[in-house]
Design brief:
By secondary structure, this protein is an alpha/beta fold. It has one domain (3-244): NAD(P)-binding Rossmann-like Domain (Rossmann fold), CATH 3.40.50.720. It has helices at residues 13-24, 36-43, 60-70, 96-117, 143-164, 181-187, 197-205, 212-224, 228-232, 238-244; strands at residues 3-8, 28-33, 50-54, 74-80, 121-130, 169-174, 235-237. Strands 3-2-1-4-5-6-7 form a 7-stranded parallel beta sheet, with helices on both faces. The longest helix has 22 residues, at 96-117. The N and C termini lie far apart (35 Å).
Length: 246
């Protein structure tokens, strides 16, 4: 039976770059996302190593689709990368249904997909959460996103103990400001809803954004080369990983 890596949100940005990085290192990769075309674009990089599946990880039925797709394959890496930025703006004005959907994708999906696929995880396998610096700062205008990412960081800490019983390690890292579709969305926000928008536009204009490929290289080191203690030690800052992965 073959071993695979599963990446949610694998159609664009960091998810796509990490899928290609792992495939080039001989992993069989399954990328998952809600939209078909981006997933197909990811698979085109190495079609013999990358498969795709359209699924909404916030829905139980679609999490079971992933379970069915992998059949009896064993999972070496489960990477929770899928996330949504919206709703944006002041949390006192947030729509309840939109907030619940954001939490379903950013927080609940990593928990319940891990539950769903646990029986297929190899002893010694690794679960990985793509965190955010927004977990540690209340950024005006990204209020609910900050809440969801802070909760994900606590979930990572809580799962450390639970997954150890299954000989599975969990790691987490935040990628900084990266040239991804989410950053495009951030730069499109109105200054009245997001007062820091000019800062993010400046990063793009000055070429200061990290490439998804560089982030994938750093995350790849953590996933494949770091020992268990290092992998699970903390929610890693990309700046620390850049110092290691020259």
């Amino acid at each position: 039976m073959s071993e695979i890596a599963i990446i949610t949100g694998g159609g664009t940005g960091i998810g796509q770059a990490l899928a290609v990085w792992l495939a080039k290192r001989k992993f069989d990769v399954l990328v998952v996302g809600r939209t078909l075309d981006p997933l197909q674009n990811t698979a085109k990089f190495l079609p013999e190593k990358i498969r795709y599946l359209t699924a909404d990880v916030s829905k139980e039925m679609d999490r079971q689709k992933i379970n069915t797709k992998i059949d009896d394959q064993k999972i070496k890496l489960l990477i929770h990368n899928a996330a949504v930025l919206s709703p944006t703006g002041d949390i006192l004005n947030v729509d309840a249904a939109q907030f619940e959907q954001q939490l379903a994708i950013n927080l609940e999906a990593p928990l319940f997909l891990t539950q769903c696929l646990l029986k297929n995880m190899l002893p010694g396998g690794r679960v990985f959460c793509v965190s955010s610096g927004a977990a540690y700062s209340a950024i005006p205008g990204l209020d609910s996103y900050c809440v969801s990412k802070a909760a994900l960081t606590m979930l990572y800490n809580v799962l450390k103990n639970s997954l150890k019983k299954h000989q599975i390690q969990i790691g987490s890292a935040f990628p900084g400001i990266v040239d991804t579709p989410m950053q495009e969305l951030i730069r499109s926000l109105d200054v009245n809803d997001f007062p820091q928008v000019d800062f993010f536009r400046f990063f793009k204009e000055e070429g200061k954004l990290l490439s998804p490929q560089k982030v994938a290289e750093c995350f790849g080191w953590l996933l494949l080369d770091a020992d268990d203690e290092t992998f699970s030690k903390k929610d890693w800052d990309i700046k620390e990983l850049l110092d290691i992965v020259k």
